[in-house]
């Protein structure tokens, strides 16, 4: 039976600048489980990656406009604007609210910026887990994005290493033996969403392990290269 | 440890008009497992729901334009058009490619339309599983939608029963004790995505069971009422 397990990794300490996430994850996995194994996919939220990489900034107190200015400084383009909400394109090419600047689960008076290069962040965690535990895992750095047309946010991948961001089904056929029309599935986004279901926004569990992932998806990868739709192909940019 | 299992339900026969999905799912679960239990969420793809509800139509052979006319007949609005691809609003209020009309995994020369009311389809399956197996499960009817800005499709919910579509975290606080900024999570979409990871587009497994879902999410629900963003709030419609 095809079967997937999604396991919250609990017991991670509060993360601060300079912390080595691979070390903290390895320690938590050894101490409380789940023990990591080859082929696991480790999903890590953007928030702890940003904290470890020193991407927290202080907001000027008593300056109501500081947050907006920070958001604008982090965006290369503003697609839409309504009140406090800006829909922006980030330097990495992601389109999201407020350039990914986030003030929840960070110390009061601070905001967390996106990692500069979340693919690189994912690779570092993957390499660090291999060095510490001798395991080959995939790593997804996830963030919580809203979407047009549908209420509610879902978690998606902003960085990947060792796990495909998008799987191309061209050349495979459907169960009736004909060519498939839908050809590309964003499996890293689906893994990020599956992980979110055990993390919970409010519970402060920033890492989950997905076990049982299709082995052919475990390959060199990049969220920015695979998942960002080139503006020329995009009907809504 | 917070833990979720996602289990493919194998052994479902080919589905045709008039088939009672709850009966087929109950039989397959009894014969091969997973045995269904209270609190499970059963994710069923739109394709088999449409087949069971007789939503297959024949496409006029030798009429290259038949598919486009069918798509236009199923849309209340066309948001964008590029070649064969139309981004449309369906009568239910979903925004998706080609009004949800799909020609993969259906007999040659046919196309599958969306269920008329996938919330009702989900309720029927939920009620049928209660009647047959004595279990209280949530049901999500899923479909594969593309998104702007990001390549690759993900599975989302187009119908729900007994499982929240969107969870409102207003009033809860983050792990540092302050009010959360991101307040709504589309858990039914995340469940649909998690299920897709064990179904696979090409493998023809149209049902999966998600076990271990947060109990407070199991409540009366509706995908159309909860997940569709009202056009007045929508910046991209």
What does this structure look like?
The structure is a homodimer of 237-residue chains. Chain A is α+β, with helices and mostly antiparallel strands. Chain A has two domains: 5-54 and 115-230, 2-Layer Sandwich (60s Ribosomal Protein L30, Chain: A), CATH 3.30.1330; 56-113, CofE-like fold (Alpha-Beta Complex). Helix content of chain A is 26%, strand content 24%. Chain A contains six helices and twelve strands. In chain A, strands 1-12-2-8-9 form a five-stranded mixed beta sheet. A three-stranded antiparallel beta sheet of chain A has the order 4-5-6, with no helix packed on it. In chain A, 49% of the residues are buried. The mean pLDDT of chain A is 92. At the A-B interface, strand 1, strand 9, strand 11 and helix 5 of A face strand 1, strand 9, strand 11 and helix 5 of B.
